[in-house]
Amino acid sequence: MNVLLLAWKVKLPPMMEIITAEQLMEYLGDYILDAKPKEISEIQRLNYEQNMSDAMAILHKLQTGLDVNVKFTGVRVFEYTPECIVFDLLDIPLYHGWLVDPQIADIVKAVGNCSYNQLVEKIISCKQSDNSELVSEGFVAEQFLNNTATQLTYHGLCELTSAVQEGELCVFFRNNHFSTMTKYKDYLMALSLQQEQQSQEINWEEIPEGISDLELAKKLQEEEDRRASQYYQEQEQAAAAQVQQVQGAASPASGRQSGSSERKRKEPREKEKEKEKEKEKEKNSCVIL
């Protein structure tokens, strides 16, 4: 909605200070209906009306958040879903920066053309496979997701800077959130939502926040190293816990074995005592002739 307001495609009453989510949905719905192309073929009209119907059905999700599924091959590549239709109908470009670096061959092979959801399914499938090559691919893919959990890579930022046009108003998807973004003097800027209540100015923040490419690369690398280190520590802790469980399960068994051996040692002694008692009885018994 912020993109439409900044582009003057949707206008609110000048004296309106507070607007409800329901009112925003009404404004969006009216805009979609008014934006319907006039001079189009019959097939294009039917296709547009179907897309409009699909978009209207999920428009209410804007209040809680749309579910989009990124692909790691391009900044504008998403799995085509009804949620993406909304952006098409509103003529709002949608971007993300979660890309695989094409120079890292093993990650390129492991991720392929998968969307995020498909990659998660692939990782689960590879872990259960008997094929060592598939297991290795699954491990590489999982490491990629763990190491880039911020959903922005250095390669992705470079592609974003190249793809977004100067002055273009668009939406940036990252960390499962949507931000209003533009490009100003070759810098990517995101609309700040932390506005002071009394301020009438629109504030923008640089993406990323005021650091050079070299500093960003270093920052992302440090973050990836930290996540990789944390992942290996968790694996080691899990392995150590498993060993302790195995050892704990073996201890009672050994205790039972020692207990049974002690009983076995006791049994001959008891038999010897019984024999000695019988001999004493024979000595003390009287024989009647």
UniProtKB/TrEMBL annotation:
Enzyme class label: hydrolase
InterPro entries noted in UniProt: MINDY (IPR007518), MINDY_domain (IPR033979)
EC number: 3.4.19.12
Region (Disordered): 226-289
GO cellular component, one term: cytosol
Biased composition (Basic and acidic residues): 261-289
GO molecular function (one): histone deubiquitinase activity
Keyword tRNA processing: no
Reactions this protein catalyses: Thiol-dependent hydrolysis of ester, thioester, amide, peptide and isopeptide bonds formed by the C-terminal Gly of ubiquitin (a 76-residue protein attached to proteins as an intracellular targeting signal)
UniProt record, GO biological process: protein K48-linked deubiquitination; proteolysis
Domain MINDY deubiquitinase span(s) in chain numbering: 1-207
Assigned protein family: Belongs to the MINDY deubiquitinase family. FAM63 subfamily.
Protein name stated in the entry: Ubiquitin carboxyl-terminal hydrolase
Protein's organism: Alligator sinensis
